[in-house]
């Protein structure tokens, strides 16, 4: 299919995608506005050719293929490269082994026109366990990139870029854009139906090994972004308070991760993560004037109970063992 009046760009970072990519591309064709969609295959130097997949869809989709100069091993480079190259007024990221629901782009196009949407749209998405077929609806406000659409003009105007992290690049981007929207007083638009299916597989990156390896990057790519914005907006009381609350709630999230029996058994990785958090926490206390005692007061019982109640949903893949209360954790590692 030739390039026409492109409205959407779908950026798909790939590596040896021959097995799964046809299903993803097929799902994109199930839209009346398919002639307004371009697909950018942003490849990470695949060693298994997949030209025949592109050939199969060339009459139904406008597809461009770009490639990293060298194999990165993570999707961040491919996503950034694709976002830079996008011609659509709006773009989104998709993984090679996932799917869009039927008419996903038709629905988002209607939503954009009806609401005169700008900046960013966040939609719910479906998490599907490929082995069991079990499905869950995941909320649009999760940090994952699934179901999120970005206005190209917004992305380029503010020079949005992923930080140099190997893991948790989607959470890094979500935190960064959330902080940016607050700083610029810009609106995010919520779409309350799932339009994307995350096909969770046993060998996917979101595995036990990934969880363990990702912890230092997770701390840096969440707490690090928030503290940067907090320090930058120290003279704006409302923003300062908003970022402080975001930091505290994310810090609490880190605490619950640290109660995982998986991480507790990985002392070296656990200490690597603590060493990342410690200077960020020191900067937080300097920027806010909060002491450990004040912080622990802010982490009141209701907030802790709220996090405990959401464990089953948020941390279902992580078996928890209560290792130490948060007061002991904070005072032991972050004095």
Give a short summary of the structure.
This protein is α/β, with parallel strands linked by helices and 335 residues long. 48% of the residues lie in helices and 16% in strands.
Q: What order do the helices and strands follow? A: EHEHEHEEHEEEEHHEEHHHHHHHH
- Assigned CATH superfamily of the largest domain: Spore Coat Polysaccharide Biosynthesis Protein SpsA, Chain A
What CATH architecture of the largest domain do you see?
Answer: Alpha-Beta Complex
Quick one: overall form? globular
Uncertain residue segments: none
Helix content: 40-55%
CATH fold node name of the largest domain: Spore Coat Polysaccharide Biosynthesis Protein SpsA, Chain A
**Number of strand segments:** 11
Strand order of the largest sheet: 3-2-1-4-9-6-10
What structural class do the secondary elements suggest? alpha/beta
Tally the structural domains: 2
| Number of H- or I-type helical stretches | 14
- CATH class placement of the largest domain: Alpha Beta
Tell me, rounded to a whole number, the average pLDDT. 89
What does this structure look like?
With 335 residues, the protein is α/β, with parallel strands linked by helices. The protein folds into 2 domains: 8-200, Spore Coat Polysaccharide Biosynthesis Protein SpsA, Chain A; 208-333. Helices cover 48% and strands 16% of the residues. It contains 14 helices and 11 strands. The chain has helices at residues 21-29, 51-57, 76-85, 104-115, 152-157, 169-184, 208-232, 237-257, 261-264, 267-288, 292-298, 301-309, 311-314, 326-333; strands at 8-14, 37-43, 62-67, 90-93, 99-100, 120-123, 125-129, 135-138, 148-151, 188-191, 196-200. The chain has a 7-stranded mixed sheet, with helices on both faces. Helix 8 (237-257) crosses helix 12 (301-309). The protein is globular and about 65 Å long. The mean pLDDT is 89.
């Amino acid at each position: 299919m030739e390039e026409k009046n492109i409205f959407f760009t779908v950026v798909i970072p790939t590596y040896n995608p021959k097995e799964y990519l046809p299903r993803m591309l097929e799902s994109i064709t199930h839209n009346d506005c398919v002639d307004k969609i371009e697909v950018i295959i942003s490849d990470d130097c695949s060693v298994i050719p997949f030209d025949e997949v592109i050939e199969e869809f060339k009459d139904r989709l406008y597809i461009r293929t770009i490639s990293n100069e060298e194999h990165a091993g993570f999707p961040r480079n491919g996503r950034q490269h694709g976002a830079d190259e996008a011609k659509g007024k709006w773009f989104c990221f998709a993984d090679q082994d996932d799917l869009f629901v039927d008419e996903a782009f038709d629905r988002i196009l209607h939503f954009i026109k009806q609401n005169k949407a700008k900046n960013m749209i966040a939609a719910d998405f479906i998490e599907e366990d490929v082995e069991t077929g079990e499905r869950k609806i995941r909320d649009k406000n999760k940090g994952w990139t699934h179901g999120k659409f970005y206005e190209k003009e917004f992305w380029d105007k503010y020079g949005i870029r992923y930080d140099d992290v190997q893991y948790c690049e989607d959470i890094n981007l979500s935190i960064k854009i959330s902080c940016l929207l607050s700083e610029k007083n810009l609106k995010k638009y919520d779409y309350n139906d799932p339009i994307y299916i995350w096909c969770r597989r046993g060998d996917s990156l979101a595995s036990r090994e990934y969880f363990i390896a990702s912890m230092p990057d997770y701390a840096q790519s969440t707490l690090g972004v928030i503290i940067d914005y907090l320090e930058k907006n120290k003279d704006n009381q409302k923003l300062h308070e908003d970022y402080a609350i975001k930091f505290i709630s994310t810090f609490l999230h880190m605490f619950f991760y640290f109660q995982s029996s998986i991480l507790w058994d990985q002392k070296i990785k656990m200490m690597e993560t603590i060493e990342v958090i410690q200077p960020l926490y020191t900067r937080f206390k300097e920027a806010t004037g909060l002491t450990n005692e004040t912080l622990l007061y802010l982490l009141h019982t209701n907030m802790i109970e709220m996090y405990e109640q959401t464990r089953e949903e948020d941390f279902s893949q992580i078996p928890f063992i209560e290792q130490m209360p948060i007061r002991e954790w904070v005072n032991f590692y972050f004095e």
